Amino acid sequence: DAGVTQSPTHLIKTRGQQVTLRCSPKSGHDTVSWYQQALGQGPQFIFQYYEEEERQRGNFPDRFSGHQFPNYSSELNVNALLLGDSALYLCASSLPSGQNEQFFGPGTRLTVL
Amino acid sequence: SQQGEEDPQALSIQEGENATMNCSYKTSINNLQWYRQNSGRGLVHLILIRSNEREKHSGRLRVTLDTSKKSSSLLITASRAADTASYFCATGGGSEKLVFGKGTKLTVNP
Questions:
Q1: Coil/strand/helix, residue B54
Q2: Are β-strands A64-68 and A53-57 bridged in parallel, bridged antiparallel, or unpaired?
Q3: Are A112 and A24 in contact (CB under 8 A)?
Q4: Using an 8 Å Cβ cutoff, are B47 and B73 in contact?
Q5: Considering CB atoms only, which of A6, A99, A106 is closest to B50?
Q6: Partner residue facing A41 (CB), from B4, B99, B102
Q7: Considering Cα of A38, then A39, then A42, then A48, what sign does the dihedral take?
Q8: What is the pLDDT of residues B65-103, one digit of tens each?
């Protein structure tokens, strides 16, 4: 049973550039959530996708956008990168109903120079 | 904003000892989850406890929940060097966003 996968593992960008991160959910899951984790902090919720629509959004600017595809995989896009966007970006998948576990991928480490 | 606050921020123990980490949260919850994170990589789900449960066990892990005090604790018994990691509590789950604390960094010395 494949778990949550993310690509790439590491990424280095410069300020002002744009980046796309990818996530494939755990088999059988159709809800994908994205989190940003700064060094030494707990993960912060960015947004959640279900049925190809953004269902919830955290306190992140519009520079952060996403997409979910019919096969439930998802992308996180960040435009006009800032130094402060350097972080570990985590994707989690879950079943949409009830109070269930969210399972996380290994993350993408983004460094903005 | 962070919902859960773990205590202590850092904990160092010897192999074989028990480790206890505490978590406090601010609002009413449906469930609370504990995760482990090794070396800044992905989070591993450890255990979920629902608001109507008071205690739950999984292997060497024991989680308690006190909704009247808005607190939870994670006990790891007979710790091993491989338990060295950061531990996070989080409220929410499923269709709800997870709200994490800052975590407890546990070091188990061989």
A1: coil
A2: unpaired
A3: no
A4: no
A5: A99
A6: B102
A7: positive
A8: 999 999 999 999 999 999 999 999 999 877 778 899 889
